[in-house]
Amino acid sequence: MAQQDNQFKRLVSHCKEYGFIFQSSEVYDGLSAVYDYGPYGVLLKNNIKEYWWKSMVQMHENIVGLDASIFMHPKTWKASGHVDAFNDPLIDNKDSKKRYRADVLVEDYMAKIEAKINKEVAKAKKRFGDSFDEAQFRSTNPRVLKNQEKHDAIGKRLANGMRDNLADVKALIEELGIACPESGSKNWTDVRQFNLMFSTQLGTIAGEEGKLYLRPETAQGIFVNFLNVQKTSRQKIPFGIAQIGKAFRNEIVARQFIFRMREFEQMEMQFFVRPGEEMKYYEQWKAFRLKWHKTIGSPAEKLRFHDHDNLAHYANAAVDIQFDFPFGFKELEGIHSRTDFDLTQHQELSGRKIQYYDPELKESYVPYVVETSIGCDRMFLAVMSHALTEDVVPDANGKESTRLVLRLHPAIAPIKCAVLPLLKNKEELTDKAREVFNKIKFAFDCQYDEKDAIGRRYRRQDAIGTPYCVTIDFDTLEDNTVTIRDRDSLAQERIAIDDIVKTISGKIDMSTLLSQL
RNA sequence: GCGGGUAUAGCUCAACGGUUUAGAGUGUCUGGCUUCCACCCAGAAGAUGUGAGUUCGAUUCUCACUACCUGCUCCA
Question: What does the pLDDT average to over A374-385?
Fold first, then answer.
C-alpha cells in the first residue's frame, strides 16, 4: 500500500513537474477536484481523443459523430431520471461515522412494522385454520390496525418531508428512535440534500423558470438528437452516434487526482439496435472496447471486466472495464445495455414520436441502446500510470544509472521527435539542426533543444515520452544523415535527413495503430 | 460530509520557540567547456498555503479557512 501511495504520488508530481496537469486555480490555493491540462497534457489528451474518435467514427461506417451542447432543456434531466434519482437525502451518524440515505433508514423502520403485522397475521392464520379470512382480519384486528395506521402515518410524513422539509425527516428519525444499524447510536447529523447536478440559469434574471443544469453525462445529447442524426445521415439500424464532451457532477467526495473530477470529459457512443438483439451487440462492443485498450498498449493483466451487481434503472446488462490504477482496479469504461429506457422517456416527456421504421420488419419501434462510455481523463491517467517507469541504463562511463521514462505508445506521445545538435557552441551544428527542425515540423510535433549535454537532453525527452530523437553531428554536415535514437531500446540508427519524416511517420502513425484493431 | 494525516524553492527533503540573511540536493536560467545517454567549471533567480491567537520573539505552539492524502460513504 505504501509503495502504491509512493508510486501514485510520483505520478502526480511528474504530471505537474513536466507540464501535463496542474491543479486548477493554484494561485488561489486551488479548487477542489478540478484540474487543468498543461502543454504536454493537452497534446496527450488530444491524441487519446483522436485515437478514440477515429477508432469509433472513422473506422465504422455505421457510426457518426455529434457535438451536442452542454446546456440542454431542463426536461431532459427529468426524462433521464437524473433530477429524481440524483437527489439523495443523506444523514451521518456522528458516533459510527456511517452515512445512510435518510429515506432508506425510515423505510427500513417501516418494513419492520410491516413484518410485525405479517407475523400477527401468520399467527392468526395458524390459529383459525382454513376458515381464516385474512382481509377481514387485517381490517378489524386492533393490533394490526394500530400498526398499519402507524406505518401509513410514517410513510406520509416521510413523503412530505422528502418533498420540502428535510428537517422533519430528521425529526421523524429521532422521534421513531431509529438507531444506527451498525453502532446502535442515535446521534445523527442533519439530513442534507446532495444534488449531483450543477445548476445555473438561463437569462440574466434568476428564478425557477430559467433553471438549467450542466449536463452530468453526454449521452442525453445523443438521445434527443436521435431522429435528427438518423434522418440526416441516412443511417439504418443498427448504427451508432459518438460524442466527446465535457460533463459535470457535483460529487460528494472527489478524489484521486484526475480520476474523479467535478468537471470531466466523456467519450461516449450510443449504438441503436433492434429490440431483442441488444445482447449480441453488447458482447460485440465488450470485445471491441477491450481490444482498443490492449492495442494502445495497456497490458491484459491491468485490464478486467467487472459486471455490475446492481443494475441502474435503465439497464438490463452492464459491465465495467476496470484498469489497475496505482490505487487499485477501478472503473475506466462502462458498457451498458440501456434498453429503450431513454428514448421512451424522451418520447413521453416531449410528446414526440421517437421511433425508427424498420424496412425489413416493416414496423416502427423504439430502438434499444448499447452504450460504451469511457472517461477521457481516466484514460489519460491509465496510460500515464502505466507508461511512467524507471529503468536502468548505462551512463557515459558504461556504469548503471536509472532513468525516468514515459513509455507512451508513439501514436499518442505529445512530442514525436526532438531535434538535437550534438554541441551547442558549434554554429554549423546548431544551424543545421534548426534547418532539420524547420523541415520536419510540418509533419508532427517536434522540439528543438540545444541546452546541456546530449545525454541529459535524451533523458529530458524520455521524461515526457518523446519516442524519437534525431541528433545532428559533424557527419551530418558531410553526408546529410542524422542518428535517430529510440526511446525504449536506446538504439541509434543512421538515416538520411530526407528520410526522417517517413521513418518516424511510420512508427507514430495513427492509421497504423487503427489497422491493428 | 465525518474521522485521521499532511502543507517550507518547480521537485525531494532540512532547520531546539531565538546563533538564520530559512539550508541542501535536484531542477530552471545565463556564460564557458564538451564529437552521442543525468560530465565539469563560474554565476543567477526561486519557498515557510491563507488568516487569527499565545509569546518579548512563531517555519516551529493553538484555532479557523483552503488544498492534498487516507478510512467511511457515494459513484448512471
Answer: 94
Residues 295-314 of A with CB under 7 A from strand B: 312-314
B3 C1' to A95 CA distance, Å:
10
A98 touches strand B (CB under 7 A): yes
Residues facing A321 on adjacent strands: A305, A333
Instruction: Provide, in whole angstroms, the distance separating residue A29's CA from nucleotide B21's C1'.
Output: 28
Give strand letter and number of the nucleotide nearest A77 (CA to C1'): B76
Nucleotide nearest to A24 (CA to C1'): B67
Q: From the Cβ of A29, is strand B under 7 Å away?
A: yes
Tell me the ipTM for this assembly.
Answer: 0.89
Q: What is the DSSP string of A331-379?
A: EEEEEEEEETHHHHHHHHHH-S---EEETTTTEEEPPEEEEEEEEHHHH
Assign A401 to helix, strand or coil.
Answer: strand
CA neighbours within 13 Å on the CB side: how many for A61? 2
Least trusted range by pLDDT, from A12-21, A25-34, A162-171, A377-386: A162-171
* Of residues A181 and A341, more confidently modeled: A341
User: From CA A328, how far away is CA A333, in angstroms rounded?
Assistant: 15
**pLDDT tens-place string over residues A166-176:** 778 878 887 88
Those residues whose C-beta lies under 8 Å from the C-beta of residue A441, and which sit 6 or more positions away, are none
- Whole-number Å distance between alpha carbons of A413 and A2: 29
Q: Could you give the domains of chain A?
A: 38-69+216-384 (3.30.930.10), 88-194 (no CATH), 415-515 (3.40.50.800)
